[in-house]
């Protein structure tokens, strides 16, 4: 047997013992504190006590840190659970049916939460969370909701409010202005059909309220507001201001300044506020084409470009617009009267392609048979295509054109004799027959 004994005389084995016979015993020593040779037993004891205190403090810090972590996790979990429940569980909601309708606006890019907040603010729904839940439950329906103005009954259930928003009859304050539309009504001499003016279309789009208590901004109120001398309040752009101030018939001073497009307006606004919305939006639309600078190439101001574009709109099919624009520019350059039947028709209540000798003889600020130059105002709302045609007309020396058949075929020429021959073709086709 081999081994080592503690030299300190303690008589305790400090290593391992191996027996040379078949039996082998291995005995591991218990952990012990090794005292430095220079340290007394009392000092060693104090050191052990200090180590024990540090160990206990370390355990306490560890337990405390673990407790803080657990609390934090529980807090986040509770917040997440609360958020989830607010979003997906039952929220304050009206049972319905709703009451009187109110007008709300949905802006481009708004989320279901933002729409819900607007509805809650107007007391359409009891809470924005209820509307959000309804939208989540019917994601296909919420995606149909478009920016604009809607009338929705107050104190509706969230599901009913969503259904109302996607119903076409709930949309208010939406007016569609077709290219060639005028401010005031006119009728066709051939068919007697009424062509509603822009003021009448706005009136129809402005009606709000229940069937028994509906209110509308009338065409007469719009006409009065549109004739105001406060052009800034009407949104007239600076590039049109001086020309509009000089319009002889104030009822027509906004002609052409409401562009052909779909427009949203607040139907609860005043007539002046409604017109300002449409005129300002139209000015931005026109300016996007380059109207402020394009006229330099054809010798026209921005407002004159708009006037010429309205003539192109009423005289030409899309394929011929740039050619008709060139005829206008060429005639103005040589001070030749435009002699457009559309300008004669403008001041008539009943219109048709053909005009009579008496019609053409009437002197008005718009009749280009009776005066040189452009009319006093646009004669309709031009399309952007018509405006672009005037801004950049086709190249050509044409001074005359005439549509020769019902299919819209139009012939252009520089020669007056050729033009007279083309008029005969038009007469033979019946396109110039009068209904009066």
Automatic annotation (TrEMBL):
<comment type="similarity">
    <text>Belongs to the transglycosylase MltG family.</text>
</comment>
<keyword id="KW-1003">Cell membrane</keyword>
<dbReference type="Pfam" id="PF02618">
    <property type="entry name" value="YceG"/>
</dbReference>
<protein>
    <recommendedName>
        <fullName>Endolytic murein transglycosylase</fullName>
        <ecNumber>4.2.2.29</ecNumber>
    </recommendedName>
</protein>
<dbReference type="InterPro" id="IPR003770">
    <property type="entry name" value="MLTG-like"/>
</dbReference>
<keyword id="KW-0812">Transmembrane</keyword>
<keyword id="KW-1133">Transmembrane helix</keyword>
<comment type="function">
    <text>Functions as a peptidoglycan terminase that cleaves nascent peptidoglycan strands endolytically to terminate their elongation.</text>
</comment>
<keyword id="KW-0456">Lyase</keyword>
<keyword id="KW-0961">Cell wall biogenesis/degradation</keyword>
<feature type="compositionally biased region" description="Basic and acidic residues">
    <location>
        <begin position="38"/>
        <end position="52"/>
    </location>
</feature>
<dbReference type="GO" id="GO:0016829">
    <property type="term" value="F:lyase activity"/>
</dbReference>
<feature type="transmembrane region" description="Helical">
    <location>
        <begin position="61"/>
        <end position="85"/>
    </location>
</feature>
<feature type="site" description="Important for catalytic activity">
    <location>
        <position position="315"/>
    </location>
</feature>
<feature type="region of interest" description="Disordered">
    <location>
        <begin position="1"/>
        <end position="54"/>
    </location>
</feature>
<keyword id="KW-0472">Membrane</keyword>
């Amino acid at each position: 047997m081999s081994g080592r004994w503690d030299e300190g005389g303690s008589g305790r084995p400090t290593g391992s013992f191996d027996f040379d016979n078949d039996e082998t015993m291995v005995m591991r020593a218990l952990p012990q504190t090794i005292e430095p040779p220079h340290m007394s037993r009392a000092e060693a004891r104090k050191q052990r006590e200090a180590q024990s205190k540090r160990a206990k403090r370390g355990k306490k810090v560890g337990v405390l840190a673990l407790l803080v972590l657990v609390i934090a996790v529980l807090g986040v979990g509770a917040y997440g659970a609360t958020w989830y429940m607010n979003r997906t569980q039952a929220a304050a909601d009206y049972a319905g049916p709703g009451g009187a309708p109110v007008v709300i606006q949905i802006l481009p890019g708004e989320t279901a939460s933002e729409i819900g907040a607007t509805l809650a603010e107007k007391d359409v729904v009891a809470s924005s969370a209820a509307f959000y839940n309804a939208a989540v439950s019917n994601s296909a329906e919420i995606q149909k909701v478009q920016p604009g103005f809607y009338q929705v009954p107050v104190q509706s259930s969230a599901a009913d409010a969503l259904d109302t928003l996607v119903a076409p009859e709930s949309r208010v304050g939406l007016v569609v202005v077709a290219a060639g539309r005028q401010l005031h009504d006119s009728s066709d001499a051939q068919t007697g059909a009424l062509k509603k003016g822009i003021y009448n279309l706005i009136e129809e789009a402005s009606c709000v309220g229940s069937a028994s208590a509906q209110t509308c901004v009338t065409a007469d109120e719009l006409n009065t507001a549109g004739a105001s001398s406060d052009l800034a309040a009407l949104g007239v752009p600076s590039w049109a201001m001086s020309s509009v101030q000089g319009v002889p018939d104030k009822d027509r001073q906004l002609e052409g300044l409401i562009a052909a497009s779909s427009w949203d307006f607040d139907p609860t606004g005043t007539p002046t506020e409604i017109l300002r919305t449409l005129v300002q939006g139209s000015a931005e639309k026109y300016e996007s084409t380059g109207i402020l600078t394009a006229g330099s190439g054809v010798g026209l101001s921005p407002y004159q470009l708009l006037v010429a574009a309205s003539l192109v709109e009423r005289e030409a099919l899309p394929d011929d617009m740039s050619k008709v624009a060139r005829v206008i520019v060429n005639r103005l350059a040589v001070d030749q009267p435009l002699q457009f039947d559309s300008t004669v028709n403008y001041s008539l209540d009943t219109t048709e392609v053909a005009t009579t000798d008496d019609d053409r003889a009437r002197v008005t600020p718009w009749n280009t048979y009776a005066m040189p130059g452009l009319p006093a105002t646009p004669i309709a709302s031009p399309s952007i295509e018509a405006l672009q045609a005037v801004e950049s007309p086709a190249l050509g020396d044409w001074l005359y054109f005439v549509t020769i058949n019902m299919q819209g075929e139009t012939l252009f020429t520089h020669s007056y004799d050729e033009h007279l021959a083309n008029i005969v073709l038009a007469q033979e086709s019946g396109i110039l027959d009068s209904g009066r």
